[in-house]
Amino acid sequence: MKVAFFSTKEYEADAFKGAPSAGIHEITYLPHRLDPVTARLAQGHDAVCIFVNDAADAETLDVLKQAGVKAVALRCAGYNNVDLKRAEELEIAVVRVPAYSPEAVAEFAVGMIMTVVRKYHKAYNRVREGNFLLSGLVGFNLQGKTVGIIGTGKIGMLTGRILSRGFRCNVLAYDPYPNKVDADEAGITYVSDLKDLLKQADIISLHCPLMDSTRYLLNAETFPLTKEGVVIVNTSRGGLIETNALIQNLKNGHVAAVGLDVYEREGEYFFRDGSGTIMHDDVFSRLLSFYNVFLTGHQAFLTNEALSSIAQTTLENLSNVEQGEACKNAVKG
Ligand code: NAD
Asked: What is the pLDDT of residue 42?
């Protein structure tokens, strides 16, 4: 297949060129983010390969169809950026990489919890400036604390396991589709009502997908249900948190610390070098101004293992589509 690869980063191109199935598809690596205008660049290609902040909305899919594209291959797990209904109407296949390295994200989430609880980020800057004072760096032990995992799929389950088995936290979880067998083995206890988790957790880690039902799961009404001094970590999708409500709860001190790898309007900024330019997003700038907020640019997945796995699965998915075979990683509306 001829594949137009949008939003290319050099580390992705390297992983695709080094994959066992490299060479079976002809890939054009493009730096552009997919949108209705850049979609025209797919002319003459059979498929597009896209990442989390490429927009495969209805308008873009219409342009892709006219350009002759038959498949959208997501090189990520989430597919909230694809209009699946329109893709089906246009008979454009959508495939994804449901699991590449849940360990990469789970380990990052635990690292983020440690960072904001033990203030690694503040200590790093302080020591570099020759300031060896410890005032303001007091953290708390994770052992014995209650961690609430929202979403116990591949990543949430692993995160809970590390925290329960490794740190000896009391791990609670909420998931509308609980997996009792794996949870028992991981040392995770389910609550049947999300509110119970919100009320009890010292630390909340988000691991559910972004859907209409989960958008703003943490919002102006649900933040007050959480414990005074709660720590929040989000490595899932920015839209799970109503950022303005989070800011209010940081300002009034209800939320003690936050680690975010994702942000609800990250599409405009993430994966690009904006240094030396003006940040126009006042909400993001306000987040950055808090001493107790640690932000990263959607990098939880970024390990060699994950990149290799993404590349190989994507190439196999494209082969399935090319050969008209059923693809186990197809996404339907
Ligand atoms: P998964 O599909 O294995 O698990 C998602 C779980 O969420 C499922 O068990 C599902 O039942 C549960 N869920 C659905 N609705 C829920 C709700 N309302 N409340 C609580 N749980 C709910 O997905 P995964 O591989 O574990 O990934 C989780 C999320 O992590 C993805 O959706 C993606 O958005 C995000 N992610 C982020 C990165 C990153 O680099 N930051 C990388 C990969 C994935």
From this structure: 98
Domain locations along the chain: 2-100+303-323, 102-295
Per-position DSSP letters for 179-193, written without gaps between them: -HHHHHHHTEEE-SS
Q: How many CB atoms lie within 10 A of CB 263?
A: 24
Report the SS3 class of residue 331.
coil
Buried b (16+ CB within 10 A) or exposed e, 229-255: ebbbbbbbbbbbbbbebbbebbeeebb
In CATH, what class is 2-100+303-323? alpha beta
Classify domain 102-295 at the CATH superfamily level. NAD(P)-binding Rossmann-like Domain (3.40.50.720)
State the chain's mean pLDDT as an integer: 97
Q: Is the ipTM of this complex over 0.90?
A: yes
Instruction: Read off the DSSP letter of residue 19.
Output: S
Helices 304-322 and 10-18, axial angle in degrees (round to 10) = 60
Which protein residue's CA is at the shortest distance from atom 15 of ligand 1?
A: 208
Long-range contacts of 281-289 (CB under 8 A, 24+ apart): 283/243, 283/244, 283/247, 284/243, 286/247, 287/243, 287/246, 287/247, 287/258, 287/260, 287/263
Within 8 A by CB and 6+ apart from 138, the residues are none
Q: How far apart are CA 209 and CA 152, in angstroms?
A: 11
Closest residue by Cα to atom 8, ligand 1, is 153
Q: Is residue 321 a contact partner of residue 93, using CB atoms and an 8 Å limit? A: yes
Describe the strand order of the beta sheet including 230-234 as a list of residue ranges: 188-190, 170-174, 146-150, 203-206, 230-234, 255-260, 293-295
Report residues whose beta carbon is within 6 angstroms of any ligand 1 atom.
77-78, 99, 102, 105, 150-156, 174-177, 207-210, 213-214, 235-237, 261-262, 298, 300-301
Tens digit of each residue's pLDDT (9 = 90 or more) over 87-130: 999 999 999 999 899 999 999 999 999 999 999 999 999 999 99
Tell whether pTM > 0.90: yes
- Quick one: pLDDT at residue 78? 86
Quick check: do 2-100+303-323 and 102-295 share a fold?
yes
